[in-house]
Amino acid sequence: MDARWSAVLLDTSTMAELKKAQLQHITQYHQQKQALMITLDELEAELSTLTLGCIESSTLQAEKLNAFLKNMQKNRGMLEDLLQTCSQIPAHLAEAEGPVACIEPVRTCQERWQTLEQTAFRSLWCANICTTEAFALLQESRDLQFEMELLVKSISPGHLSQGQIDWQNAIHETMRAADLAVLTERCLYLHEVSQALSSSPLGKKELRDVEDTMQALNSQLTLTKEKLVSQTQIAVIIQPS
After folding, report:
1. 84 near 156, Cβ under 8 Å?
2. pTM for the whole thing?
3. Are residues 73 and 172 in the same domain?
4. Distances from the Cα of 108 to the Cα of 29, 65, 83, 103, 156, angstroms
5. In whole angstroms, how far apart are CA 146 and each of 107, 131, 141, 150?
6. Is residue 127 packed enough to be buried (19+ CB in 10 Å), middle (13-18) or exposed (0-12)?
7. How far apart are CA 134 and CA 58, in angstroms?
8. Which CATH number goes with the domain that contains 194?
9. pLDDT digit string (tens) for 85-135?
10. If you placed Cys at 130, which of 9, 122, 188, 202 could pair as Cys (CB 3.0 to 4.6 Å)?
11. CA–CA separation, 77 vs 83, rounded Å?
12. Are residues 18 and 115 in the same domain?
């Protein structure tokens, strides 16, 4: 009799421990799900601020999107832990608390997570492409402006010798005219690129930088042309008949 009661008590104790473990799994599941949903809400709110409507610089946007994705990667364990807990919920529990009922919210969280990650990746890719193109344009514009400045310095009365232009100076004038034609073509190409960038998803700061640089390039091109024309006219006037 005592043995029976001992067995019953043992079975009862075991069942109680099992129920307790099951309850702990369910409680843990709900706590993890709630924490993950709060995190997803926060991430969605943060991502909504990482647009060019809120950030004026594509460079800064790219930096913030990189940090955002790193933070997502850091928090990915929350989703993995929830999946693990869901898989530990016994199948024989009531439908409202069983694994089938638990997995649906997890799938919803997974979908929200993937949407956030994909959206952030696309925005980052676009920001990187645009900033790279803008940087290349600015660098090429600066190089071109420097080349025109050098050309202007080469166009000076110092090339005249005792009021006459010899055949070497005539060759130099022809070469400078050819150089100017090439520089003008490069300027036109950069203008086409800048126009394309102006209609791209580029930050206001980078767009201002492009606009200012192109204006400076236009001014330098105009100055270079004026200098060359002026020097040619001088050469014609003083050339001996």
Report:
1. no
2. 0.76
3. no
4. 15, 23, 12, 9, 73
5. 58, 22, 9, 6
6. buried
7. 10
8. 1.20.58.60
9. 887 776 545 444 555 677 888 889 999 999 999 999 999 999 999 999 999
10. 202
11. 10
12. yes
Enter the tokens of residue 124.
């980052």
**Out of 161-170, 207-216, 228-237, least confident range:** 161-170
Only one residue has tokens 């709060």, namely 38
pLDDT value at residue 116: 96
Question: Of 87, 112, 128, at which residue does a domain stop?
Answer: 128
Please tell me the number of Cα atoms within 13 Å of 18 on its side-chain side.
Answer: 9
Q: By the 8 A CB rule, do 186 and 221 touch?
A: no
Show the domain range for 217.
131-238
Final residue in a domain of this structure, among 98, 128, 158: 128
> What is the SS3 assignment for 152-172?
HHHCCHHHCECCECCHHHHHH
Residues 11-43: tens digit of each pLDDT? 555 555 556 666 777 788 889 899 999 999 999
**Alpha-carbon distances of 189 from 98, 121, 177, 186, 215, rounded to whole Å:** 65, 31, 19, 5, 14
The Cα 100–Cα 3 span in angstroms is 40
What is the spatial distance between Cα 33 and Cα 151, in angstroms, rounded to a whole number? Answer: 68
CA distance 26 to 158: 90
- Count of other CB atoms within 10 angstroms of residue 123: 21
Percentages of the chain per state (helix, strand, coil), in multiples of 5: 85, 0, 15
Please give the pLDDT value at position 4: 53
Residue with tokens 């060359």: 228
